Amino acid sequence: MRVNRNSRTARRVLTGLVAAGLALGGTAAAPAVARPAAAAAPDCSAAYRIEQKLSTGTTWRMCWHYDGNAGLVLEHVSYQPPGESRPIKVLNSARLAQIDVPYDDGSAEYSDLTGAGFAQGLMNMAPGECPGGTIKTVKVPNAWDPQHPNVKGLCATTRSRGHAYRMQSDTGNRVYQTQGKDLLVYTVNKVGWYEYITEWRFQDDGMVHMNVGATGSLSPGDYDAGDGRGWPIGKGARAYATSHSHNVFWRLDFGLDGSSRSKVEQYDSVVSPPARGAEAPSARTTRTTMTKEFAGDAKNMRWWRIVSATGKNKDGHARSYEIVPGPTTRYPGRAFTRHDLYATEYNPCERFASDNLGNCGSRAGKSVDTWVNGQTLTHPVVWINVGFHHIARDEDQQPMPVHWQGFSIAPRDVTAMNPLTPPALADQNGHVQNGS
Asked: Does the pTM of the predicted model rise above 0.85?
């Protein structure tokens, strides 16, 4: 469906010879969006720094480097909305942790990051792919073409997203509204016939979206005999493109307020029938502090947040970020893909959700499900798994439209009010009795 298998086998052999490690590179190749930091800069040189003040007044700062297997890695990510005198640290690091691709007919399963040359497949971008932004040059470690290791492959730009908010005053004589702006950072990596767009979108209100979009081509070599594990593509019902799954993992190491010590909380709500005399059903929400490593499944009215151990907003509430799952098709075929979220105690050897690389003792070469073994969470690392079952359609050729999968993290009590609150409403914090 998605890959030339002979090409992939060669890449897997070559990738096995690639030493895990980090490679840096960067020169601007278009009008700059990322500016050198004037103050409170992340701990990296200007070439590897992204800093953007959005038109609504929020500034995002971060460092980047390029890993020989994971591809783009973002580090020291901070957020400074209007009204905050200092940047608020959000993440120590964020990156992809695996793309597991099993085929429905059982003929193949690929670890695209650690076994198929994802990082080496970084694509050059034309200026039109990064409108109004900066394309940075990345030195790709162990590049497929050793004569040309430098790739213009990292875009940083801004995008409008529509309304950030809209509110009509009680008197009806004024409308408060603003149009939101995002910082968008992304790369394109080719694996076989597929091209993955790895997108990180940083909103001016503190929300962060992590998405992977799969595009490119259907592999001309991946067709079956029409036994129910594929879909007919082309004239008649002769050629059935083989169905498969994309199980994408992300690894997030939170550093809220500059500290790795944080806690994970799970919230569950239960709705009960209306009590006697009540007009509606009632709901009760309970909080569970997750003190040990765990594997979690998204359920109706369940959510998680990562809570700062050191920082509070101006209302005295602990800062936190909420995990907001995206649509997913959970793949039951492997133990490591059977859960939506894993929280493990930080271990530098635990880098990939499956097919883990490196010689790290008894945990090396295992998968994230095996790392949930009862350790106390003091420095939690969160692994998010989002699945997509790709059953091809005629519209997938040619080229194949992007299909997206991902999730978000949302600020919860990071600031005392909406960080984009207009000055006229700045006094309306808490129990507001009269609107403006």
From this structure: yes
